[in-house]
Amino acid sequence: MIKKLGLVVIFTTLSTVQSLAHDFWVDGYNSSTFKATLGYGHDFTPEKIAEDRVSIFEPLVLINKDLKSTTLKNEGENYQYVSKKALDDGSYILKGTYKPTLWTKTSDNKWHIGKTKKDFDNAQYCQQTSMFAKNIVNIGNDKSDFVTKHIGQNLEIIPLDNPANFKVGVPFKIQVLLDGKPAKTVEVKGTFDGFPSNKFAFFGTTDLKGEIEVTALRSGKWILMTKSKKAYENDTCDEVAYSSSLTFQVN
Fold it and tell me: I need a surface site. Which of 93, 158, 161, 200 has the fewest CB within 10 A?
């Protein structure tokens, strides 16, 4: 479980957007059943999701090497999910999705969900937000390379090798895809469990193939994150904002 990782800020945006921002990640481990966390908040500490935001999130999904998807069940707090039984040895992708959601800020400093600028006379800013999260889960000695494949997220971080092979101090590569194509010169930041809060342990920019080399400073749970923005399709809103995270274990 991610207890408290250093806050990752991918890039500086308008102050109005910063007040809206939350980090989104997923994490899981095998026990008597597979137990998973849908993380949404600050400092990467699991916390209860506000009731008016629960419907924004799709249930967590596990994907196996045969590309079979299993939807997990919410059990316990609204960020906690479980499978029906423990997972067999193998490699899996735990996937989380924050649905495309409109947020509009008005001049009284309030944010309104599901509304655009056309709904208010005093609208200041509008953003359609989508978030994507993945956790690479390796159980036993299986190190399938299916985790290096695109699973269809609009903004996706893909390890170019199974993280089970990652070693401390040995560079490895990841690729960022935007709408299935290499995301060129986008910023990627990362940190690991136990690193000081409000700091990051890695920073870089992808090349023209959307790739970047990362070196793990120590073993443990790591998280990488990136963001991308584009103009909204019409003048009822300002921007479309994507964010994506990848969590994995370095042994």
Answer: 161
